[in-house]
Amino acid sequence: MFGVSRRQASSILQACEKRIRYCSSMVNASEWGDGDHVSAVLEKYLDGDILSAEERRCVDHVIQGHGVSYHPNDVAGVLKSVYTTRDDVGFPKGLHSMDFGQHVNVSGPGVDDALARHDIDTDHRINLLDMETITIDDASTVEIDDALSARETERGIEVFVHIADPTRWLHMPDHVLAVEARQRTRTVYLPDGKIPMFPWRFGTDVCSLREDALSPALTMHCCIREDGSIIEDSMDVFPSNVSSNKRLTYDMVDRILLEDNNTMVSVLHRAAERRERRRGQDGAQTLHIPESSLSVSYNEDKKEKEVTLARVSNDIASASRRLVSEMMILAGDIVARVGSSLSLPLPYRGQEMPVRPSNEELEQIPEGICRSYYMRKFMLSSLTRVSHPIHHTGLGLPGYVQATSPIRRYGDMLAHWQIKSALRGDRPLYDAESLQTVVDEVQKTSKRIAVLERSVDDYWMAVYFQRHREQNPHHPWSGILLNWIRQEYGLAAVYVDDIGREVTCRVHMPTMIGQPVTVYCTHADPLSRHVVFSDVMLHT
């Protein structure tokens, strides 16, 4: 499959450590580091990217040292056999795996030690066990890090967003679980599984807001007026004890909203609608682009991994997903405002105002997915500052802090440590300078993980279309032309409706933006993660 014989593979594996050290010495160590960075050079070569002189020498030494040709299949074989630990794709060595190690997982300074620690917030942790509380997640979710409560009052809708509280046990960033979480940065999501930030026992059992279990939480509270604004003196953040009365899925919530208006779910929905409307008035930029689900599972009968790629319900179609999204945005808004009132260093996120296209230009683009796709290219990357809140144009908020997924994101746990120390009257664990250092490190690692996730995603997408081509090389895929990428070359972005994915496609027929188009997969190569589409079926 990879163009490498068993004998060559054996030779490669025996020489692995020697070649990694040698190749690493041929490049700038501060830039490339060790073997996992050498794999990045090989991947650039396979992708056809332009290499620097040092990178080219690195590729030469790898290829010559392993006795293979410069053919992409042979180089991919080296990459798979030497520099990866997964079965199917380039997964760099050194990136954390499911194994947390004996010191973290079993005893000593690991989970057991964390569980033995007292609650330093016990004196001001508010008991909300009698309050009706629900969780809303996908059916497959095991790390349940948020729960919701709401009730109608004379002032407006009172909302409580309860967030899992791992810092109840991890008081300081130097605990072994916290150190491991910082190195991992966040949970890694891959089509064939995920790599958690915390050991399973701690993340899914100890910290998760499980149904009918007493759970420590950090609660964000406010009261929402009919116009969607927040009553200033109602905002609060405090440690709590909660117990989820009911675990709901998104599909269950959608059915409830269609059938019954007299539940707490409907109260939460009204609160979400108020907030969504208010943020829109304040300039929020909402792009409605459908999502897809790419999953890989092992088929025992076929003795192979099966790839499933399908469109899933998106925010514009699902009231339940909009509800949860609005509540999480609300929580981030509250944390930013409370943090600002305390002059507290936090990882405040913002987004500058994009240069919007003219109304005349927008009118040329059909409404819906085509216009959302067009607007996306004008959106600017988010910014992070730690000294004070910054305006978030995309969300229509004066400030925002991600704090709703501390089981899955280390940056959210940073926010918890900071705000809980301030609530206790202690000095923050981090001043602005030291917090900025940690935030920069976390963001750098998170970006690297995102590249990996996209790479693995592209691999399995290529496998999916490769198998489709083997079964039916002329299978037609229905889509919509979103926009031209390079019209002079007939290169366009097409949304394939069957799978809920945007693909790059060669379009030979005269087609207008927003018009339906039938496309065909003319090539799929998992090794290079390359899939080619055309609106004309090329006969091979």
Can you walk through the features of this model?
This protein has 540 residues and is α+β, with helices and mostly antiparallel strands. It is 38% helix and 21% strand. The chain has 17 helices and 19 strands. It has a 5-stranded mixed sheet with strand order 1-8-7-4-3. β15 and β16 (491-496) form a beta hairpin. α2 (16-25) runs antiparallel to α5, α4 (35-46) runs antiparallel to α6 and α12 (264-281) crosses α13.
What is the strand arrangement across the widest sheet? Answer: 1-8-7-4-3
- Output the number of helix runs: 17
Q: What average pLDDT do the residues reach?
A: 83
Sheet with the most strands? 5 strands, mixed
**Low-confidence residue ranges:** 1-34, 83-95
What share of residues are in beta strands? Answer: 15-25%
Radius of gyration: 25 Å
Oligomer: single chain
What does the overall shape look like? globular
Tell me the helix content: 25-40%
Distance between the termini: 21 Å
Structural class: alpha+beta
Q: What is the number of strand segments?
A: 19
Topology:
Blueprint: H1 6-14, H2 16-25, H3 29-32, H4 35-46, H5 53-66, H6 72-83, H7 102-105, H8 111-115, E1 126-127, E2 134-137, E3 146-152, E4 157-164, H9 176-184, E5 188-190, E6 193-195, H10 200-206, E7 215-224, E8 236-242, E9 246-249, H11 250-259, H12 264-281, E10 291-299, E11 304-312, H13 319-341, E12 348-350, H14 359-363, H15 369-376, E13 383-385, E14 400-401, H16 410-423, H17 432-471, E15 476-486, E16 491-496, E17 501-506, E18 516-525, E19 530-534
Parallel strand pairs: 1-8, 2-9, 17-19
Antiparallel strand pairs: 3-4, 4-7, 5-6, 7-8, 10-11, 12-13, 12-14, 15-16, 15-18, 16-17, 18-19
